[in-house]
Specification:
This protein is mainly beta. Helix content is 0%, strand content 57%. Residues 5-31, 36-41 and 152-161 have low confidence and may be disordered.
Length: 242
């Protein structure tokens, strides 16, 4: 008797939270009014970001900027999923701009004309607000000219604004160990359900599933609760072989 992983579908979307900055003084001592408070919908999935690029030979230097002002700074920045290029370096606060990220890419070849990459990280406001950011950028190369545009967010028919997926991290005979993985560090809760067998929930978003002895197709589902930002759902199916 054995089991076989049959199918998996992941539900994914991005989330951002907004920041508001602090007022500042000009050279005459006059206090500028603070920027207006930001709403989550204003920066959902990172559309508050803009990008510009320069090319030297096969090297692209892309500056990603929080376009709503410099009253925020980046941390925990990751650049993932490069297409058409490899990541050389990621630098936050280049030239003293805390709301900038400088991404250096090496084109795969001299003839590469298109590609993309995803910026993930956190924008923090000076009033201790934190914003998770996820945005994919595409680039088009025409000679020395480079145009960077933003890929629109996921269009899955879900209200979820985060991602979650099931990963099988271990298994023996009819028992498998599963883990729910997420982009967001602090979901409100993680719940599991199965269509057969028994399930033991472990810490750190993991579960051990003992599948039934009867042959058939069985499914496990995880639901990750992101509070006001919605839910993310993933499923994985296993077939018990007679």
């Amino acid at each position: 008797m054995g089991i076989k992983s049959k199918a998996k579908k992941a539900a994914a979307a991005g989330v951002t939270v907004a920041t508001s900055g602090l007022s500042s003084c000009n050279d005459n001592g006059v206090v500028d009014p603070p920027p207006p408070p930001l709403e989550c919908s204003d920066v959902d999935q990172g559309q508050s970001l803009e990008a510009t690029a320069e090319r030297v030979d096969r090297v692209l230097s892309v500056t990603v900027r929080h376009a709503l002002g410099a009253d925020a700074y980046w941390f925990d920045v990751r650049v993932t999923n490069p297409q058409g290029a490899v990541i050389v370096s990621v630098v936050t606060s280049p030239n003293g701009r805390p709301d900038d990220v400088l991404v250096t890419l090496l084109l795969q070849s001299d003839t590469t004309s298109t590609g993309s990459f995803t910026v993930e990280g956190t924008l923090a406001g000076y009033s201790n607000q934190h914003c998770a950011v996820l945005r994919t950028f595409t680039f088009t190369v025409d000679g020395q000219n480079v145009v960077v545009s933003q890929r629109k967010g996921h269009s899955l028919p879900l209200v979820a604004r985060e991602r979650a997926w099931i990963v099988m991290v271990g298994g023996d005979q009819r028992e498998v160990e599963l883990e729910a993985r997420t982009e967001y560090r602090d979901p409100h809760g993680v719940s599991w359900s199965v269509t057969g067998g028994s399930l033991v929930i472990n810490p750190n978003q993991k579960a051990r599933w003992l599948l039934p002895e009867e042959a058939g197709l069985y499914q496990v589902q995880v639901v990750v609760d992101y509070g006001q930002n919605g839910l993310a759902v993933d499923t994985m199916a296993f077939e018990v072989l007679g």
